[in-house]
Amino acid sequence: MAASAVPEHVERIVIENCSIATVDADDTEYASGHVVVAGNRIESVGAGRAPEGLANVVRRIDGTGHLVTPGLINTHHHFYQWITRGLATDHNLFDWLVALYPTWARIDEPMVRAAAQGSLAMMARGGVTTAMDHHYVYPKGSGDLSGAIIGAARDMGVRFTLARGSMDRSVKDGGLPPDFAVETLEGALAGTEATIDAHHDASFDAMTQVAAAPCSPFSISTELLRQGAELARRKGVRMHTHGSETVEEEKFCHELFGMGPTDYFESTGWLGEDVWMAHCVHMNDSDIAAFARTGTGVAHCPSSNARLAAGIARVPDMLAAGVPVGLGVDGTASNESGELHTELRNALLINRLGAHREKALNARQALRLGTYGGAQVLGRAGQIGSLEPGKLADLVLWKLDTLAHASIADPVTALVFGAAAPVTLSLVNGRPVVEDNHLITADEDAIARATRDEARRLAQIVAGA
User: Fold this and answer.
1) How far apart are CA 346 and CA 159, in angstroms?
2) What is the mean pLDDT of residues 136-147?
3) CA torsion, points 112, 117, 123, 127, in degrees to nearest 10?
4) Is 10 left (phi over 0), alpha (psi -120 to 50) or beta?
5) Spatial distance between the Cα atoms of 11 and 164, rounded to a whole number of angstroms
6) Which residues are bridge partners to 425 per DSSP?
7) 62, 71, 83, 54: which is closest to 18 by C-alpha?
8) 334: number of CA atoms within 13 Å, CB side?
9) Phi-psi region of 220 (alpha: psi -120 to 50; beta: other; left: phi over 0)
10) Pairing between strand 325-327 and 395-399?
């Protein structure tokens, strides 16, 4: 690939002698190649050594035994759940929510900040360069929760989308959350608009973006969906929610609205190229066709779907139809590992248990889900998700010559099928976030202590309630 036009005065990082999976439109790969980063952009990618005579090279890395890929992109998460891991471990979705909502409704700003730090640290040290959080629990008097989450992501140095969530349908209205856990319609819309105004950055190299994200059909009113869509489109931001996650949700929608989830979403303005939905496990042919026709994206969360016994999403059929699909960790109360490599592997393995069997997904399709597919559903495919000149320098150098991977000849197979690979270097916007498998932007031990302390404090508050 040819070098992009970058001013000569910028500092450069050169990575050489590594395998490269670009995940571009042609799935271009190099058995031994180079990547040159200039400032916060990828300047060149290609076979062999980097071009001679590059100015201002501040770092030159021998990538022998490594694979370079785009950074992993997480498209669905709930950071606050980090401090409620390991609870309700044998529940389906609705029972799990009923069991945990009374605890979640007592979170506050220090808890949310610590949980966000834990969630972000676990993802970043495992190769995630772009994260997102769907936060929808805003108890009265709990502080600036959105600001705490965004601040944690900024301090960690990862690219970030906050999906500002909301709930206004509580138990008294036929929903699942307790009455004290929801906002009013007016409060939810005002809070979402204020978060967009304060934090959304629409620029090419934005580190923080905001989406409008009412929670799910069984925790929000129809009016919140409709007005949330109008707000998002007026503000020019993306839209996110949960959809078609379980058979119970499908039954709920038919009983309450007289139609299935996809038809309900379409009736409220919630299908389109600016929308992505989490899970989408129970989709029929008509639903998939509607997503393909409208360009609506999907955040596939295989580990969480298995943990909550939700089912197997029809990812091969979605991809064949042209639906944009990325990967999501989901909240760590339904995926305790909290990192995205697990989802690369589980997306491949779990989908092979479905109708397509061994032809469901292969290693390169799984990697594409976790990189370019994620960029698509977040609306950033022109900026991140593949290694191409001119794109932002979000990339990972994976070490594949240790015992865990050394006998697997194909590096992409080693990464996806094998154990989690050590991260020798992770760059976000051209800046190192991980070096030699350790975060350099945060103290992992301090975060572990803080999250443990906040989990205990939350448990004590709930016990005394």
Assistant:
1) 24
2) 95
3) 150
4) beta
5) 36
6) 397, 435
7) 62
8) 27
9) beta
10) unpaired
